[in-house]
Design brief:
The protein is mostly helical and 460 residues long. Among the domains are: 227-297; 360-434, Serine Threonine Protein Phosphatase 5, Tetratricopeptide repeat (Alpha Horseshoe). 72% of the residues lie in helices and 0% in strands. It has 28 helices and no strands. α3 crosses α4, α8 (108-120) packs parallel to α10 (138-147) and α15 (232-257) packs parallel to α17 (279-291).
């Protein structure tokens, strides 16, 4: 186990995937998850085992699982280990584990992790001292707000945020680009949670009016803030003032929550009629109508867009129908697709086969797949196996998946084995992290035209 392997797992969902780990826990195989964390150095198993053991207040075992990972120095594991220790009551050990010592450890991320443990230990003053030199980092500023929620430190947080927000406003007013843009939204968030919602809306509203926007859209934050406090008129003003994209979704929710769905419908229809590009508003209205069980109207509203493979609303319509159990109707929409549409899209076949399975036509779907010689072999096997399992033939699905290499096939195979109470076998079919990394390097080398593990350019 080393930092590089752990980071690779986190970046690529490598090792035993969270999906498989969650199924193992769900089916009562926590001990196997603990064992896999220990024997395989599997991060997602360690994380899940820690979570479950802490929930059972077995902090000693949770720490035993996490300790080898934390000792690598990999920050996510260090933070997780410190969290276990502090919940166990070993506050000084937790702080010692995550404390940034020496110049090489004085990074914003390390200080942020240390400050989080300080706050949990009731030492907020020290946390502020640790974080203050790093507040120009937006991630640190966001963490400060998150970690102090409910701690009675809102005024102290505002003392730190307000000067940064004002600096961002000054720079933007002068036509510059500020790196402190997060401070605008965070100032409003802390004001709201401290009981000063009116002030938050006034300040953020002024930012919106002055077009003080950062990469994160302040208008969206403002609209959601208005919606949480039932400010319908202000939301309407924002929507009609050039901010319809951001303001309409929270406005519709606020009107629904107030029992005024008919007004939400009227607003959406007016915007649809007034714009040359009504797709976003049509999708909102489709969902609103579906929520009122006006399914026919919802589908017919967006049907004229179905021929457009890029901006049409066929996929949202199919998803909407499937989510409410109308699989046959969703399937009919896909069966109506023109050959030209199918040539331009790639999502229809797999979704169509899934819907066929949901409507009891698994064997017909399998026959269609088997008649497509150009389909990728692994994709074919995984899709057919899913349909076999759906058709009540898990043994055939397992046999098929065993004949195919690759992590995707192994993951699906593991889930099927877990459902048959063959959990140890399920873990065994997942390749080790080392094997997964070797395979990934080989595939990258093949795709990139280089030898596995080589850093050279493509072969000429």
């Amino acid at each position: 186990m080393n930092v590089d392997d752990l980071q690779w797992q986190a970046d690529r969902w490598g090792g035993i995937s969270p999906l498989v780990v969650d199924r193992l826990v769900e089916y009562g195989h926590l001990e196997l998850v603990v064992q896999a964390a220990d024997e395989r150095g599997d991060w997602f198993c360690a994380r899940a085992a820690m979570r479950e053991l802490c929930a059972a207040r077995d902090f000693e075992r949770a720490w035993a699982v996490m300790k080898p990972f934390a000792e690598t120095g990999w920050l996510p594991a260090v933070s997780a280990g410190a969290d276990v220790l502090i919940r166990w009551g070993r506050v000084e050990d937790a702080l010692a584990l995550v404390r940034p010592e020496g110049p090489s450890w004085q990074t914003a991320q390390r200080c942020r992790a240390y400050a989080e443990i300080l706050v949990k230990a009731g030492r907020a003053d020290e946390a502020f001292t640790v974080l203050e030199p790093h507040l120009a980092d937006g991630r640190v500023l966001l963490s400060l707000v998150e970690m102090t929620e409910g701690q009675g430190e809102d005024e102290r947080v505002l003392e730190l945020i307000v000067p940064l927000a004002e600096e961002a406003r000054r720079v933007q007013a002068e036509g510059g680009s500020s790196s402190l843009w997060e401070a605008l939204d965070l100032q409003a968030e802390v004001l709201e949670r401290s009981g000063r919602a009116e002030e938050a809306m006034r300040i953020l509203g002024a930012d919106v009016a002055a077009r003080r926007y950062g990469p994160q859209n302040t208008v969206e934050t403002y609209a959601k803030l208005l919606a949480r406090h039932g400010r319908i008129e202000e939301l309407l003003q924002a929507a009609h003032g050039g901010h319809a994209r951001e303001a309409l979704p929270p406005l519709v929710r606020a009107l629904k929550d107030a029992g005024r769905a008919h007004e939400a419908e009227a607003v959406l229809r007016a915007f649809i009629a007034a714009t040359d590009y009504p797709g976003n508003y049509q999708a909102l209205l489709m969902d609103l109508l579906a929520g009122q069980e006006r399914i026919d109207e919802a589908v017919e509203l967006v049907r004229p867009t179905f021929a457009d493979p890029w901006n049409g609303l066929l996929y949202p319509a199919v998803l909407m129908l499937a989510e409410i159990g109308l699989h046959e109707r969703a399937l009919r929409l896909l069966d109506e697709c023109s050959p030209e549409f199918l040539d331009e899209t790639h999502w229809v076949p797999s979704n169509r086969w899934w819907l066929m399975g949901e409507t009891g036509c698994c064997r017909e779907a399998i026959a269609e797949i088997e008649a497509m010689p150009d389909l990728d072999a692994d994709e074919r096997a995984i899709t057919i196996a899913s349909l076999l399992a759906q058709d009540g033939r898990p043994d055939e699905a397992i046999k098929l998946l065993r004949s195919h290499a690759g992590l995707a096939a192994a993951t699906d195979l593991a889930v099927l084995l877990i459902r048959q109470n063959r959990a140890a076998e399920a873990i065994a079919v997942i390749p080790s992290v080392a094997a997964q990394r070797e395979d990934a390097e080989r595939r990258w080398g093949t795709w990139n035209g280089t030898e596995a593990g080589s850093t050279d350019g493509p072969l000429l």
